[in-house]
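[SOLVED] Need 3D model of a two-part complex

Original post:
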Amino acid sequence: MVYIGIDIGGTDVKIGLLDEDANILAQGKTPTGVGGSYQDMIGNMADYALKLLSQIGYTLDDVAAVGVGVPGVASNITGVVMRCVNMQWWNIPLREEMQKHIPKPIVIDNDANLAGFAESICGVSADTGSSVFITLGTGVGGGLIINGRPWSGHHSAGGEIGHIIMQIDGEPCTCGRRGCVERYCSATALIRLAKEAAIEHHESTLWSVSDNNLEKLNGKNIFACAMAGDETAVAVFDRYIHYLCLALSSIICLLDPQVIVIGGGLSKDGPFLLNAIQSRIKGYLAFPEVPYAEIKIATLGANAGFIGAALLAKQMLEETV
Amino acid sequence: MVYIGIDIGGTDVKIGLLDEDANILAQGKTPTGVGGSYQDMIGNMADYALKLLSQIGYTLDDVAAVGVGVPGVASNITGVVMRCVNMQWWNIPLREEMQKHIPKPIVIDNDANLAGFAESICGVSADTGSSVFITLGTGVGGGLIINGRPWSGHHSAGGEIGHIIMQIDGEPCTCGRRGCVERYCSATALIRLAKEAAIEHHESTLWSVSDNNLEKLNGKNIFACAMAGDETAVAVFDRYIHYLCLALSSIICLLDPQVIVIGGGLSKDGPFLLNAIQSRIKGYLAFPEVPYAEIKIATLGANAGFIGAALLAKQMLEETV
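Solution:
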């Protein structure tokens, strides 16, 4: 049987077909079409999934179940996406609409939860009973695996590491509040720190690496300046690692997982980031004498979302049979 | 059969004997004896438990299992208390030593985890699949119940809500770090805020209620001043509720439990505290349009620790049989 995994993003929908052993049989992507009706958007992604299926010689009869990840709050109990700002979706009956095109069991969840679940099954945190997945990208996402099971929360709204408050009345966040982890630990936050520092330090290579246009700063070129020893970039990187270690120490205090998996855009320069965290995290722990989580870089990359969606579909089916 | 629950505190050890249906057959307390050898301390509490047992006509043969809670980090895998500052215990073989006196299966865990577990079985969060227990006392403790099971962490060091960082480089904490939730949300923090405000406002009833000795301020008399409408005390209380709602919003973002249970000293003025939180928490949520945790006051009071210890002993036995 085949499991369809669908990972809805703000730009593209990534879709993969997995077999019983979690091998990827086919994968591809199609534009999300934000701005269209939800019926058109969901119809388009379902059609694309069915096209992929026929390309490898399968039909709807071969599909066991479907998993769908969304960058927002989605309830698997009701099948409804309650909130998804990127998609401009509020209370969208995703499962019902998708089943018009693919009449199979469908499980839905948050995308970061699914990516974390994928890593815990066939990625860097495989065979661990508990792990916390954290994505460092435009925002900060998270997924929790506890006692071997994904935990999305009672109202399907958990795992939002990016919205833990780490500064009382701090930086304004896109969520309307202030001081969220996302404002200090995302790639967006790193870029903000770098811009502010570059404006103070015209001698910094942060200027040359961005062709004197600070809008071109990104995680990759900021890390490159720091790696090359630029004093301003090193200070920015140190400040960023300080914030990140504070946030990681909060996760360790509260959840004490076996592994913390770091994914998202900034994890692509894995060793540089990981070395910095690993060499400093112990100094940030409340109980430094007690063993604590291993910190690792995610290995499934951009495929993690659809892999996790397909795997959760498989798990759901196994548990209901 | 009888289950012995032992709740070790800095001053007293509370001990209760429970039957199969979680009824308390007997209970009492004995001084902890901090400063003595761990062998003497553990021997004393075991003797006291055995004395309680004989007082109600039972013998060691009637004991099925023992649960022990400690105000620190205790591993049920090794049976060792890794860290317990109040007791001056580091790497103490609690289970091994206790079994010299009570040769029965013994489970050990953190005291707040056990109190939260007790509330989730026979207290205010009974019959819920997920709950977070938070104690507002000298410090801030926590216990997590996820998918119906207590989660103490992979290294037995989880649930430490009090040491989530809520202020970058903030108030110094007893753990050696800065900005921990405990520094803003404990009774100690409330008292600190009240002292600072009273010094600025000599007209406040915070002075009369403490006989002009601010060392006599406590949660109860500060709340009383605020309830009576003293302007300074109301401002202190509002500030405290602001901090507490920020911390609760972080728990909701990350764990999205079905219920949050508030225990500890400050919960004794339950309705006043609870009304303030319930009327304001929605304004602190990242996703205010999504349903969120019910917030309730703990009901088991000071017995929660030994009840949870006995219940976990029972659960352990049921799962190993």
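Edit: The first strand of chain B starts at residue 2 and ends at 8.
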